[in-house]
Specification:
Layout (H helix, E strand, L loop, with lengths): L2 H28 L8 H28 L1
Pfam families: Rop-like (PF05082)
Keywords: Coiled coil, Nitrogen fixation
InterPro entries: Helix_hairpin_bin_sf, Put_N_fixation
């Protein structure tokens, strides 16, 4: 598998992870005030997942531009 294909696979996995984290936060928000103690932890997980996705997309874009 090429580097580009590997990065595309990683982007796809990170995208799925980010979407799941976003849905978890959405589900948590619908149940408030139950689970309010989990909001910050879940929100941080969403932020981290989207940051990782953004970084990996930038890495892929740079690799594709160099090719």
């Amino acid at each position: 598998m090429s580097d580009v294909e590997t990065l595309k696979a990683e982007v796809k996995k990170l995208s799925a992870k980010a979407m799941q984290a976003k849905m978890d936060l959405h589900d948590l928000s619908e149940e408030l005030p139950v689970g309010v103690e989990n909001v910050m932890v879940t929100a941080e997980r969403v932020r981290d997942a989207y940051a990782a996705l953004s970084d990996k997309r930038a890495e892929l874009k740079a690799l594709e531009a160099a090719a």
